[in-house]
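Contributing: when you submit paired examples, paste them exactly as shown. First protein:
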Amino acid sequence: MRTEQEAICETERMALALGYEEAGLRIHSALDTAYLTARDSVAFGRVERMLGGQSLGTGDHVCDSLIAAADREDPIVPIDSAKR
């Protein structure tokens, strides 16, 4: 569950730095790398089912310390869309 919460916080960090639309596009484009095989996708589904009913999110400052630490170590720098 901790890893899932960290992934949610990293998604929030990306959205804060890049905007929700750009962060969503980048995450979606990386999914084929993150889940290379059908077995990976099945395992991801098992994790989601195991977390069923758990309350994970970004509210109430849940992600503040994780985001601050990640920003210190590896800040997200938006790429100017005109340069793409």
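Second protein:
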Amino acid sequence: MFLPSSHIETAQVVVNCYDFFDRVFAESGLLDLTEGMYCGDPSIPYEQAQKNQINWLLDEVACAKGSRVLDIGCGNGTLLEAAQQRGAEAIGITISPAQVHRCRQRGLDARLLNYRDIDGKWTGYFDGIIANGSVEHFVQPADVIGGKADAIYRQLFQICHRVMNPASPVRRFVTTTIHTHATSPRIASKELLKGPLAFRWGSDKFHYALLQKGFGGFYPAEGQLKRCAEPYFRLLQEVDGTHDYHLTSEECFRHVKHSLFRWTIGPYIWRRLFSFMMRHPRQGAVLCLCLFIAESWQWQFRGTTPPTRLLRQTWQFQTI
């Protein structure tokens, strides 16, 4: 499928973002890049919370021996590994070469592939599909301005519908996605393409601009995916995981900051970061500012009414 130059450039921003993560989070021992599930108990260890979330996702698609599962945006492969341990055939796709390399080193089936480029060979192949935190990268601010966001999300559901096995007894697609909601700060269309320095430090618009420029993406509005899923899927279940993401993010960055100043691993991480900054100085500066100084990533989940909302959504295949 032909991609316009704007999407090719954005895809590279996403690739660079995960290259940055590989040099910081993975080297700090954190392979999972999404929210854990604390089940109402903040004292649950970070690692167990991550396992809880992965098991929940796999349970939602009834992953078992003989299942065929597609992981869209497979990251470093922890979900693929857990699915494989259940006896499933698990295939992951990602646009990050670093993630593909790490997955293959672990003996996992990961492909360097954009979901938009899935061809006919997988038509009717999978029993379950999971997109754990990847949907946030699929629409860009320019798409929102151009009125293309709904069409992009609808295409995602259409592709997932096509590759789902219509004879499978479960046929579910599960997403975990950060959303804006009714009380999220409003940003005018003319401001969506501006950089963070165009706004007051620490303002909502400043944080949003940092997130968009650093990560390459735009969040759907609450209810938007449900609208775009029709007629391919119906929303079967929705779980609010915002507080889980808050707990995960705070613990994750405490761990990373500690690792950066450990003499055993810190110098190695700093060398890898310096190498990234030499090749991608602007995005590297934005990501460092977003994650470690302004803490925009953590900001979006903080407070009694966080600016964003993490929703775990289970979608049921519908026969058309």
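If you have annotations for the second protein, write them as plain sentences, like these:
The longest helix spans residues 5-24.
The radius of gyration is 19 Å.
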